[in-house]
Amino acid sequence: MKDTHKIKLKELFSSFLNGIRNRKSEAPKKYLESIGLNHEDLNIGFNSGQFHHRKSEEFRKPFIDMGILRKSYVPVNDPNRTAYTCFGFYSVVFALKNKLEEITNLYSVRFKMDTVVKEFLNDECVYPSYPHLLTKRVFICDNVINTASLIQSKTLENREATISLFDGEIKPQHEEILQSLGELEEVIYISNSTDTTTADKIKELLPSKIKLSVAVLPDGEDLNTMLVNYDSQGILKFLNERKTTEIENEIEIISSDSEKSTSKRDEVISSDSEINYNSLTSAKIVITKISTLDFTNLKYPKYIHGDLEIEIQNGINTELHDLSRLRLSLKITYQGNVVLRDTLNSTQTDTVKAFVRKLKNVGVEIPAIDKIFNDFINEVESYFLSSKKTEAPKNNSTISESRKQLALDFLKQDNLLDALYTELTKVGIVGEKNNSMLLLLTSISRMLNNPLSAICTSSKADTSNLLSVISEITCDEDVRELDAISSNVIGVDNDKAITNKLLVAYEISNLKKSFWALEAIISRKKVFKETVKKNVKGYLESTTYRASGNIAFIGATQSGTKLPETIKQHSLLLALTENKEQELLQLQQESKKYSGIFQKDASSIQLLKDIQTLLKQSSVIIKNPYAEQLIPEGNLNYKVSLYQQLLKLIEVIAFVHQFQIKRSTASNNTQQITVTPEHIKSAITLIKPVIFNQEDVLTTKQRKFFNQCTEFLKKNSTAQFTNKDIQQFGGYLNRKIVNDYLRILDNKGFLEIAESDLKNGNTYRIVSDNSQYDELVRVIDLLEKSSQELMKVASVTLHLKRGLLH
Predict the structure, then answer these.
(1) Which residues contact residue 805 at a Cβ distance below 8 angstroms, ignoring those fewer than 6 apart?
(2) Bigger pLDDT: 91 or 769?
(3) Pairing of strands 671-674, 302-305
(4) Model-level pTM?
């Protein structure tokens, strides 16, 4: 290929890479996702077939010469125009490179056709590129998709490479590659058939000293379907557990019926590991993860991957009741030299990423080191879970009679919720009365059936203080602080381990990869974990640990974080206060801390823990005779879930006030209490801002700005306002925030630009009738009126009872 053509082909493929990154290119991304390939990892482009549109013939000429554009006889409306058909029209495109790493060929997959069409531009070079001269082992695949799947699986080790045939056809460049690799020891041809025709041809290309093996895939499978159906672990097991037999032409056929090979890769894997290839063709597939943790020395277990050795110097402490508290003291050896010693908390995502960066900085040059290290973490967590004792955690929350009486007296006082907030302020809560009380009540709800979940949202306020205080005042054995949520952290091997527990996640946005686990906790109150351990005979077996129970959850995230609908529906969404008064309170609190004026009151922390212990020891049934009268009216997006949350909140408030309520005995001798109108009033007061936050399409700040706009128009009897007018009612806001609010209100259909003026600023007019917000206000007003009516009825009833007594 001419040098000028190489340059043009490189520029063209660069445009294809940009094309797939375009937000409108959803179809090619979805197709690649459906076959398990990532366009970023593999440098895959998208050819929309329009790169030559509205271009000159001079621009098109080199692409015509290369065969990318071909003249078409499709009629056009201009006799001076020429129609062209395009190579790989509307396809995902792979680049093939020569030994100088130059793109001289393309491979297209036209996925929109009734039958997917795949074609090469020409017969040059190889996918993905020529292997490094020091390569020791080469995997040969029949086609580009299978080769890309092998690369995507990230199972290739150091000094291993893969190349693709031309849809099963061997080209001269393949011979050139195999002859040029001076360090080559083995070639493995991955085939879906025991037919050795292609293998025979490859054998003819190899020097006599090079070993050739044929890895035969299970019936009906290729590497891509294995990647899609069984993930990287399926491919890893297939490569690691190759079983071999010798045949006459000295080609090693890897089948499912013969002795296991002794390649270097296999030496790192437990010799007891087994795989049933025939099971891969059945409807239900179970691929057991291979453990490479060596527990020959229990005090110093090791994880070995080629030249990398990770030694856990303090062992794995299985006596801990919580995986999030596990700390690992690691010694890292690479190529025989100790390169790093450090301590790691395996459940903290940021810490794990930082540890991997340290490995790279000290010279650990292993492909896919991130995946290898994460596999190590998974093995440690699996061992921890499989080795844990099944007895219930010890209850260290016993309290003395004097402390118990103090807690009981506290719970009997008037204005109990206000008194609880006062205690919270003594341990670090500043302002945020409504939100802090909702978090506390959510924590207490863990003692009841179907506990609450609450999520704090904030654009800039510090949410960690609120959550850490609630965690600190909760009994130690009842709280699980999670920096990275996963089924490993909470999916322990008995229900008692998570029943009546509070889970705390300080930043939910870090949990996107585990939203499925979070959804299971919040909506279904259960989660399960599959892990692997060796049985008494030394064979690996898969075990599923299931855990369910009354789990309360509190977490925090930045405003604007997109949460799954299931999480939003089943959580109280709390918007933190973000005004100058709250900011001043926090600054004053920080200054008091550092000057020694404020210190957390240890007696208040102990009192709040004792209160929860006392409540936990109480067993009562709570009846709400007013539930039907509280059914919300009007049109709400989350009417059912909000109604459920309101009833649960009322139940928790009654539970906290139980020592102020007369108890009755049910027919089954259980103690029961009845909800009072005061409890309902408190619950509605607390949940009111939650309903606004959850139902209103605007945030609290956006709603305030919009209301100021409408008030300005009413006050001035005008239908429009300008940027200058905004300075009168929104002068406290900087220009960037104002522009953001205007853009959001425009996008959501609340206002529109009436007149655009770059010099003097735009003129705006309100186009929304605000009916949705007015309906929301009406619904909340009705709830408050219902509460007031119940209070009046209760007052009259109490007055009549007293009159009868006299």
Answers:
(1) none
(2) 91
(3) unpaired
(4) 0.50
